[in-house]
Amino acid sequence: LDDRLQAVKYSKDNIISLSAEIIKEYYIVSPEAVSDFTITPEYQKLFTDIDCSGYECVRPANLDVIFENVMEMPSGELLGFDYEWTFDISVPKDYIYYRILSHVYDKYDVLQDDMTLRDFIKKTGIIASDDELDLFERMELCLMTYLYNGGEYQRSEGTSIDPRSDEVYALKCRVAELENQKGRLLHEIGIRQGIIDRRVNRRILELSKLNGIRRRYGNAGMKEFLKVRFHNKKTPYDTFYSESELASERSHNFTNPVTISVVTPLFKTPERFLREMIESVINQTYGGWDFCMVDFSPEGYDEVERICREYTDRDKRLHYVRDYDNRGIADNTNTCISHATGEYLALLDHDDVLHPAAFFEVMKEIEKGADFVYTDEVKFTDDFRHLSVPNYKPDFSAFQLQVQNYICHLNVYKKSLLDEAGLYRSVCDGSQDHDIVLRLTEHAKHIAHVPKVLYYWRLHSASTASNIAAKPYATWSGIRATSDSFERRGLSYKTRSLRDNIPCYRIEPCMENDAVRIVIYGVQQEEETEEFRRHINAYKTVYHRPCSYLRLKNSRDDLPVKKILEESSEEYILFIKEGTSFYAESFFDELLHYAKMKGVAAVDAYTYMSGQRICSAGVSVSRQRESLLGGKIMLRGHGLDMLYEGYEIDFSHVREVCAVSGFCTMVSKSDFLPLADDGDRSLFSSSLRAEKQGKHFIITPHADCAGDFEAEAAKLTSSPIPDFYERNYDPYFSDNILKYWLEK
What we know:
Layout: H1 2-6, H2 12-26, E1 34-35, H3 41-47, E2 57-58, E3 61-62, E4 70-72, E5 78-80, E6 86-87, E7 91-92, H4 93-107, H5 109-112, H6 117-124, H7 130-147, H8 166-234, H9 243-250, E8 260-266, H10 271-282, E9 289-295, H11 303-312, E10 318-322, H12 329-338, E11 344-347, E12 353-354, H13 358-367, E13 372-380, E14 387-391, H14 398-403, E15 411-414, H15 417-421, H16 432-443, E16 447-458, H17 473-488, E17 494-497, E18 505-508, E19 516-521, H18 526-543, E20 547-551, H19 561-567, E21 572-577, E22 581-582, H20 587-595, E23 600-609, E24 613-616, E25 619-621, E26 633-635, E27 655-657, E28 664-668, H21 669-672, H22 683-687, H23 690-693, E29 696-706, H24 710-717, H25 736-739
Parallel strand pairs: 8-9, 8-11, 9-10, 13-16, 19-20, 19-21, 23-29
Antiparallel strand pairs: 1-2, 2-7, 3-6, 4-5, 11-15, 12-16, 13-14, 13-15, 17-18, 21-28, 22-29, 23-24, 23-28, 25-26, 27-29
Helix pairs in contact: 2-6, 10-11, 16-17
């Protein structure tokens, strides 16, 4: 729990609100621990005769149950540490809270610089009464006197230093400083060692990769891979445009040109980063832009102004303003926007770079009526010829945007959308981009995705692109942004980070009690089915959910889908193969949670097969498939290790997909039935009609299962794409991921 406070340690307001939130959420007194106040000899040793009658008391009393002594496990269970200060006495519950908050106050200088301990505790709202605080201060004085042996610290033999003295405080500060230096040195050593290891291992990995490709795809596949790698060294991820292409774009005349205002808050930007950023705007092939730069560098730091003035003197489309009031990234961005005059806005970070064709490609979508446009992006360090892995994004999916800001850079939107959505919010600093994108897309009428790498996101030690630890508060701001998004729509969903302080989230499933129809296909013998039913009932009993069963000998691709749905009295139907094992205790709740969402017709579970390998992490269908797969149906992750997280950790969070596999799938009868045709023999076939009906499909890794799915997977991936499927590409999976062998 202490890690959560560490993420916001420079913001006193966030420490106050988060401390109160953690106490209210985690420090719950069980009924058997509540007791009446009683003065006992042990109590008198600690607190003399201080009377706490009338207060809700707890017994026994752990007087050191601070945040850093409690760990939240991945399962949600709490694990406690350090019970030395636990006494068999009754003390007011609020005194325990007082001690927790006192520890928080002592730990963070940002609180001590601005308020007293009393002020801090009052602002949390946990204890508001002055009389209570007077009482707890007296109790604390008694406890400290007891612990320090009658007011004097009980020195061990040979010790002559009072631990509360200025001398000890100075030593502690010096130790902390040395620890920081040690951490920085170890970090630098780790980086250098990592560089050496990568250089040594790169060749070994390349050889093993080629061997793996040869085993899986044969010599033809290995040649294809080498051809792609050679092509990519010459033109990294197809980002290269010839001079003739760029000249053609510069001479192009749009029918209804608009002005795109680029807004960039500056703060002590290094000269090389600043020049590359500014020149990337000047070199745009579409010239209908202006550039608003506001410099928030402190007084005396004039290098940024000197460089910017050099460019503004040459090009009147560039505007520079100096503002010494640095109010944080959100408010600084709003200041930049106040100087913008264009119909559309584009946010450019002060150390990033645009592709020369970025605004030209965006303008093509604006002419088609788009009011919100985003592009693909790639990370880099110093050399544009050596790019990191690009981010090839799906088309717009509100479901995926709730759990991950996959849109990120570059996004360009109509300025008038801010009138409806509001400006950037400082409460979401760190994830202000995610917050504004959530709000803007709620109001946008036409959202367009340009599937080209047009934005270069620079990696360096202080950037979120390089390491989310550079901005740990970003994760908690993201949770606030997603929670507020649900609240605006009247939904009471709860969001948390997936793990490791990464800004990727999980929506906690609600406890759903709806009746579920369970269709068990592939039944071989009645006895096995009864055992399988008992396995399912173990989950059903935990969540008190009524279930009915339908047993079929039919295989997955020989199910009378429409008939099954029409004859079901339940709204939600789970199709599952006999013998399937569930991994997640919340399996049913997770599937049902998404199946009940508006517009969702079906939800796929993640499926694994023998050898701890992935069977399906999502179905992808495309007629224009690149490389070896040439227009076939694909199961993402098929055959890879079950711990593999996928390209851009796609296999760790909820995603939208173009179709469902039917291996283990829950459908919403009212949403899925209109898709089913009399001749359909699988959920997959019916799901391909979703585009015309405006229905959506979800896959969630938080409902995962294992079974004998090899035969079903082989049959599905070898089937032709039905003629009635009209899409030429998969909107939720980029073929470039296959083209450049990025998911492997």
